[in-house]
Amino acid sequence: MYPLNVDHLSKSYGDDVAVDDLSFTVEPGRVTGFLGPNGAGKSTTMKILLDLASADQGSATIGGTRYRELRDPARTVGVILEHAYHPARSGRNHLRILADATGIPHSRVDEMLELVGLAHASDRAAGAYSLGMRQRLGLAGALLGDPPVLVLDEPGNGLDPQGIRELRDLLRARAANGSTVFVSSHLLAEVEHLADEVVVVHKGRLVTSGALADLQEAGTLVRTPSPDPLRHVLESAGATVQIRERGALLVSGVSTSDIGDQAWAAGIALHELSPESGSLEDLFLRWTADSKPHVLPFQPVAPERQVAQR
Amino acid sequence: MTWLRLVRAELRKLTTTKIPWGFLAVLVLLSAVTAAAVSWGTDADGSKGFISTAEDQRSLTAFGANAMIIAGLFGAIAVSREYGHGTVVPTFLAAPRRYQAVLAQYTAVLVGGAVLGLVGAGLTAAGLAAALPTTSHGFLMSAGAVIQVLAASTFMGAAGAVLGAGIGATVRNMGGAVTGAVLALLVIPPLAVQLVPEAISWVPGALVHVLSGVGGEIGMLTAVLVVALWGLVPAVIGLALVQKRDIV
Question: How many CB atoms lie within 10 A of CB B182?
Answer without folding.
Answer: 17
